[in-house]
Specification:
The protein is of the alpha/beta class. It contains 28 helices and 12 strands.
Length: 641
């Protein structure tokens, strides 16, 4: 929904004041003021008052009221592009996208071209799969109105979807949509170009926290970005947030009792069918809820997306708050009003994150965990939960703004979020054929394509060269797009992997089917420098060993941590020669691969299920002990070691 702005001509001081409140995230105050204004002007409420009430209701997660007021605003002023676009967004958020398209098309037919209407209509048509119509709308508006940034941005989005990548990049450049251009470059694994683009943005806009965020985030994928430079970029995010938002809170309405039950918050845009849930659910299912010393846990879901997993997670916590795409001050004030003692954010600097709200320090103890492989750079986040393998004491501490608390033996606990299929025993064993010829070895990776760095490609090429007739099997949701498949295939071939030895699996209809697809893989090859996490646990659970390459930062040490937790540290390579050695030895050990796939105590699934990685009760006890110790140290700083 477009941000509110004061009505032209300022017809009433109350409306200008309400617009200021909305811009500052004071949605409850704005709503109260606007309702009073409408009550006074009941016969002829100002259209802007109705519009801003719709904006406030949307921010307060009141979709029915938002739709009601926005519909009234459009009736009161059917010629306003801003009102019409806001109503279209509200309809789309309620899964009424065809209605939104009809509204926008009707407006466009009766009014002169409007950039906001055209961009919103183009996006809605694209979401309905009407890509040619979406392109036509964007091109018509651009021809009528000129090369406006919003129109070029919309044109870039549809060209991107159509696979016209060079044209999309050009459109994003014209529009100065740096984030869009950089994200597309990253998806194409053109990481060096993306890093350079975002570095230039930080030089042009040195106080822009968004520019620094993109620069820092993209470096996680780079196999040439020095760890100290990554740390500097992340620290600058925190400095820029302070300049934009001002100082954080320094007092809270909580009692400094180190032994009392704690009011704990988890904050995430990913409380749905998402990779983090396999690691979050074990904690939510096992945390201590006792009134003596347990937790009262509130989940703040900051996304509009929800599904069956969302409904399951709702049942596991004491309180749930839907706060879709929140203004940082609104979210911070909400957490403060809930008197949260310990706030745990789960997204770092990934999409939909709450870093700005965390900068404001709505809770006295703030922790980052799970969703991001690096320091947040925010000095208002006190603790980052890791382990001694992902972040060895000494060097790792120097790179982090937060205090590193290590939950050994592993900072994660894994539990599949669905009923998993049985292990396919044919992989890793001779094919039952009269020839008796062994089945060719299948290597594979289901990782994000942007994680497949040049160094990863070189390693994989050497592995396949060392194992005659072996194949490389790849799968990811992004690879459903032909242009993504073509881009990756070209990169693999350029690295020396013959095209006939490459297979890309199609998308699967369910998560259980996705897990079953691992039956095509004998040995999983991890990416570098950004290891998989879920995509390491999944093949292990499906009895395919994983080979990661260890390096000097958290993102390059998650694989060794997971393997150590299940008792297989020997699968983690110390260097490239070791990576090749491990892959060759496994490929030439069909009996070992077969044993891992055979039901029983030596199967890889049983080994994993009985390991520290899957011991949810023990992990939760360690996790809660770490949180309790952090709370005690805040209550009595002199007790800190």
């Amino acid at each position: 929904m477009p941000p509110p702005r004061p009505p032209s001509g300022a017809p009433a001081p109350a409306l200008a004041a309400a617009a200021s409140m909305l811009a500052d995230g004071r949605f409850d105050e704005a709503r109260t003021l606007l309702l009073r204004h409408i009550q006074i002007n009941k016969a002829h409420p100002h259209p802007h008052a109705l519009y801003m009430l719709g904006v406030a209701a949307d921010a307060l997660a009141q979709p029915d009221q938002s739709l009601h007021y926005l519909e009234r605003a459009v009736v009161a002023d059917p010629h306003s592009p801003m009102f019409t676009v806001a109503l279209a967004h509200a309809l789309a958020d309620r899964n009424c996208l065809p209605d939104a398209v009809r509204l926008l098309e009707s407006f466009a037919a009766a009014h002169p071209p409007s950039a906001p209407v055209a961009t919103t209509l183009s996006s809605a048509l694209s979401q309905l799969g009407r890509d040619d119509d979406a392109l036509r709308v964007a091109e018509f508006a651009r021809a009528a109105l000129g090369d406006l940034p919003d129109l070029s941005g919309a044109l870039g989005a549809i060209l991107h979807k159509l696979g016209r990548i060079d044209d999309a990049l050009a459109a994003y450049r014209r529009a100065r949509r740096i984030a869009k251009e950089g994200t597309l470059l990253l998806n194409l694994a053109r990481v060096g170009e993306a890093v350079a683009l975002f570095r230039a943005a930080t030089e042009q806009f040195p106080d822009d926290d968004a520019a620094w965020l993109h620069y820092a985030y993209t470096q996680n994928y780079s196999d040439s970005a020095p760890a100290p430079e990554q740390a500097r970029a992340h620290r600058t995010i925190g400095l820029a947030l302070r300049k934009r938002l001002g100082p954080p809170f320094t007092s809270w309405n909580v009692s400094k009792d180190p032994a009392r039950p704690l009011r704990v918050a988890i904050i995430s845009p990913d409380l749905r069918r998402h990779a983090i849930v396999s690691f979050l659910a074990p904690l939510l299912e096992n945390y201590d809820k006792s009134r003596e010393a347990g937790w009262h846990l509130t989940a703040y879901s900051t996304s509009r997306k929800s599904d069956d997993v969302t409904q399951r997670l709702r049942t596991l916590v004491d309180a749930w708050r839907d706060v879709p795409n929140p203004h940082p001050r609104y979210l911070a004030n909400l957490i403060r009003a809930d008197r949260i003692d310990v706030a745990i954010e789960l997204s770092g600097h990934t999409e939909g994150n709450s870093a700005a709200a965390m900068h404001l320090r709505p809770a006295p103890v703030q922790i980052t965990y799970l969703g991001y492989p690096n320091t947040t750079g925010l000095d208002t986040i006190d603790i980052r939960l890791v382990d001694s393998i992902t972040d060895p004491p000494g060097p790792a501490d120097a790179l982090a703004v937060e205090k590193l608390i290590r939950i050994d033996p592993c900072f994660l606990c894994y539990q599949p979020i669905v009923t998993v299929p049985p292990v396919d025993r044919l992989c890793g064993q001779p094919v039952p054929a009269t020839s008796g010829a062994p089945k060719p070895v299948s290597f594979g990776s289901f990782n994000l394509p942007s994680k497949i760095s040049p160094r990863t490609l070189t390693l994989w090429s050497r592995v396949l060269e060392a194992i005659p007739n072996s194949t490389l099997i790849l799968k990811h949701a992004l690879l459903k797009e032909p242009w993504m498949r073509d881009n990756l295939a070209a990169r693999l071939v350029a690295a020396g992997i013959p095209e006939p030895r490459i297979a890309v699996l199609p998308p699967t209809p369910s998560y259980a089917d996705h897990l079953a697809a691992y039956s095509h893989i004998d040995i999983a090859l991890d990416t570098f420098p950004y290891h998989g996490t879920t995509t390491t646990c999944e093949p292990l659970w499906m009895a395919a060993p994983v080979i990661p390459l260890t390096a000097d930062r958290h993102a390059s040490r998650v694989g060794p941590s997971l393997l150590s937790a299940i008792g297989l540290p020997d699968l983690a390579a110390a260097d490239e020669a070791d990576y090749l050695r491990i892959a060759t030895e496994l490929a030439n050990s069909p009996a070992r691969l077969a044993a891992w796939r055979t039901p029983g105590p030596t199967s890889l699934r049983d080994i994993m299920a009985n390991s520290a990685l899957c011991n949810a009760s023990a992990f939760t006890s360690r996790f809660q002990a770490a949180i309790r110790q952090a709370w005690k140290q805040w209550c009595n700083p002199k007790s800190a070691p």
